[in-house]
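Lab notebook, bench 4. Still working through the backlog of constructs that have no structural model yet. Next entry is a single chain of 307 residues. Request: give me the structure tokens for it.
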Amino acid sequence: MKSQPDLKLLSTFMAVVDRGSMAEAAAALGYVPSAVSQHIAALERDMGVELLVRRPGSRLILTAAGRSLAQATEALFDATAQFRDAANGISSREIAELHVGAYPSAMSHLLPGVLSVLKSRGHGPRIRLVIVETDKGLPKVKSGDLDLLIAYRYLPEDPPIASGEWTITSLGYEPLILVTGAQDGRGPLELAECLELEWTSGHAHSPDRRLLHRWAGELGISPDVTLEAEDLHSMLAMIRAGLAVGPIPATLISGESDQPGVERVVLPPEAAPLRREVLAVSRPGIRPPIVNELVTLLVEALKSVPL
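Model written out:
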């Protein structure tokens, strides 16, 4: 027996099985009857076994080997059809699974609503999610471990910078709200009143800290950052406890409205808005349609973030 089946011979064999005669199979396939007979004979030689019992004047009868081959061939042709559909989908940029990384607050406050919309549409690949900060996620995009990274950029010179290593799409800007803990009926504090308080932000060289100092420098002030934290939830906890002042992403504040409140600091009219840019980062090349759909939904989600 040949190591690989001859699909043309198997197709002829299945036509004979389905129609019960070589003449009808020949008519369906557009062959002369002798060609069908030759195909069956060649297949029997390849298999080394009789597949059909030929009785003049009656329909062909499958042998036990013929019945087994017919079942195996049906399975083969079904698998071939599935492979063809999958290959066509891949060539049309359809995929079975998408690996998406996102920073924590995007994972908790942006993606759930977006993924719910995708799920309600009842189509698309499985989406595997990974919580990852931007600096750790960029190498994963480059290596192929992530197909898409939802990232942030506090300052224009921060990575990711446009290059041949990735495709970067700006999804919009997320406001950073300068807040204090609730003031027990006193009302919100003015910025000038906060300069004597302790502030919270990232470590000295972190992007959010550098943004804060650049913003403060433009206003001619110098906030005293004494509570450094890498985690936004930790910063927010210190602010809620009345221990610090600090800028917190609007999504995080609006997403935790069930907890004790914070007060927005009243900024002077000349203060520029504090914000960070949200980005979609993928490898260069044509992106699957699901990625473009996800990007569009994230743009809309950012537009609806309370200011």
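Notes after review: The chain has two domains: 7-91, 97-303. The mean pLDDT is 86. Flag for follow-up if needed.
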